[in-house]
Amino acid sequence: MSELRQVIIVGSGPAGYTAAIYLGRAGFKPLVIAGALTAGGQLINTTEVENFPGFPDGILGPDLMENMQRQAERFGAEILYEDVMSADLNGPVKTVYCSGGLEFSARSVIVATGAAYRKLDVPGEIDYSGKGVSYCATCDGFFFRNKPVVVVGGGDSALEEAIFLTRFASSVTVVHRRGELRASKIMVERAMANDKIDFVLNSIVTSINGDGAAVTSVTLESTLPEGVSGEDHAEEIATLPAQGVFVAIGHEPATAFLGDSGLAMDDRGYITVDGASTRTSIEGVFAAGDCADHEYMQAVAAAGMGCRAALDAQAYMDNLAALNNLE
């Protein structure tokens, strides 16, 4: 087993790297297990980021993450590009087990593994990601000024995205696989009352089409049995012009590796924390970013939560040191 560390940060991205910056400056030399393929989180796959404070001209997502990583390393953080497969978090010493048989132990752990957007898994989705396909209206809506867009989904998040996009897009079409929207009544009423929003129900997107450089349309298919008609649904196969496709069918927190750890999570797999703090159900374990926050899910919010997790972890370790000195 390797040396006992003060703190291990599982996950990178704005939450993990911000926690590493704060803990590094405090002299704790954190180990950041950043992930073998997902280091930097979702921003690695993002083009222009215009709403992160301090960059008036915007910054590319990968550049922002590289800057954060370098800043964390400058203050003594160690970055390891491995995946954590499981964790034993109970007791005063926490141990995480990585791919390749590596294991590391620490007095405290910050989980900052984020969440992933659920994808449609249809042709064209990956090809046009960043070229018209988006998973965040708040992040990318500005780029679709006076353009027709499609929002895929039927829950509150999808309708919130649709309503937000009406500030920019020439038209917004909500596509949902069922005949009724899953969103709350008030959200449905708001969306229905907006003249810029149309609905195509009982329909699914089967492909996202483009000219190689940008999205031009989506192919829709009816979910109704053959010969059954319904209002506002696609034909058996139909093409809908669109220059933007916003996928809003939910997220999946990256917390599967915690399944046997005993850490309290909600029914969707998000880590539960104590009020406004980042303390979890296990003493000495803290959570930050999208793996614990399914409400805001913005880079700046994750960074702020990473700061709070670092301060909570530091207070925990300072308290441990004080107790040991008293003994």
UniProtKB/TrEMBL annotation:
EC number: 1.8.1.9
Keyword check for Transit peptide: no
One Pfam family in the UniProt entry: Pyr_redox_2
Catalysed reactions, as listed in the record: [thioredoxin]-dithiol + NADP(+) = [thioredoxin]-disulfide + NADPH + H(+)
Single GO MF descriptor: thioredoxin-disulfide reductase (NADPH) activity
Span of the signal peptide: none
GO cellular component: cytoplasm
Co-factor binding details: Binds 1 FAD per subunit.
Single GO biological process annotation from the record: removal of superoxide radicals
Keyword NAD: no
Co-factor(s): FAD
FAD/NAD(P)-binding domain span: 6-306
InterPro entries: FAD/NAD-bd_sf, FAD/NAD-binding_dom, Ferredoxin-NADP_redctase_2, Pyr_nucl-diS_OxRdtase_2_AS, Thioredox_Rdtase
Stored SUPFAM superfamilies: FAD/NAD(P)-binding domain
Keyword annotations from UniProtKB, A to Z: Disulfide bond, FAD, Flavoprotein, NADP, Oxidoreductase, Redox-active center
NCBIfam families reported for this sequence: TRX_reduct
Subunit structure: Homodimer.
Family listed: Belongs to the class-II pyridine nucleotide-disulfide oxidoreductase family.
Name used for this protein in its record: Thioredoxin reductase
UniProt organism field: Bifidobacterium magnum
